[in-house]
Amino acid sequence: MALIGADPDHRHYGLFQLPCGHIIRRQYLRVERAAAGKHALGCEACREARYAEEAEVQGWTLEGPDTVGRPGYRSYRHRCGHLQNVSVGNMKHGDVDCSGCGQSWSSKPSFIYLFHIDLPTGPILKLGYSSNPRRRLRQQLGIAKTVSTRILRTVAMPTGHTAQCEEKAMHSYMSRMHPEMIVPKTVYGDAINTRTEIYSPAAQAILSAQLDDIAARVPDPDDPDDAPDDTSD
Questions:
Q1: Domain boundaries defined on the chain
Q2: Distance, CA of 198 to CA of 97 (rounded, Å)
């Protein structure tokens, strides 16, 4: 790596040429640490080129950054024309299904659900997604038949992939903003067959507001007049 010159806009940064030939802007201190073997200096251009090659092998084209800004994800276009956000790791290993033309769970309609469950340890809320929320509640969560349950809310999603992305965003928000409302596994134990996605009843208003937002943003798969102009998530 060779120093090309100082960054004209910041005295702590310089312009360096990597062995691959690309020019990068880096903080001098980071370069010194890299030279000492404390970390590596990556090339963004080479990295994105590698991601593009990995996507091409799987029948996708790298379009750019993830449309919602998640690190470790990129926006890819499938050969059918569908645009989709996918983690770079999943794309590399081919662990991805097109939500536009695929036939797996990710391309079929789904729902985000909110359940109220009166466990022996106390009432809880369960947030998740499923193509069949009623079956999920009574057959797949391992809840005793004597336990009282209610489906508080379901929001229809055009694909399982969309449902998963929206649900993960809700859990991330709750973890950042309302961690005190998350009920740990140690509280309910084996009374329900899940380790996460459980909230106290106090979270109902917050989760309902988020579901309202999702319902307003995401097209209703059963309403042809609510279809999007393109196939992006």
A1: 2-35, 44-96, 106-224
A2: 28
